[in-house]
Amino acid sequence: MPDVAIRKNARVLVADGRKAIVFRNDGIPQSLKLTVEQVVEAEPNPATREQGTDRPGRAAMGSHRSSMGQADMHDAEEQRFIQRVAEALGEVCSQQAVPAVVLVAAPRALAELRKAVPASVQELVVAEIAKDLVNLSVADIEKRLG
Question: What is the domain range of residue 131?
Fold first, then answer.
């Protein structure tokens, strides 16, 4: 893990494409004490075959014909979820005096978060860690970040 000093009262967002947890560090950088502030979970997302009823389309350009790929409904839902998470983090940061933010997310989710996080929050981001820790216990997350 990168050596990141997480200040007292900093917020740590731990997320993947289906679940996100916003923590507040009540400890010091050398001894983290993460407290859960908010949990955001995605709505149930059935299989793509159950969501789309139409066959993929076809395109023709002159004498060339090709089929189009089927839209991946899970990717679209993951992007909507990450947008909700970014908005929730923005609200937390605007309502409270947050000194710093650390983003910890699965690589794909982290890439989407970079695009979705409001500019006011981007200014507070002191570290980005591309790891999926969302399903670990709070103690394990503290060990991995501490």
Answer: 11-45+73-145
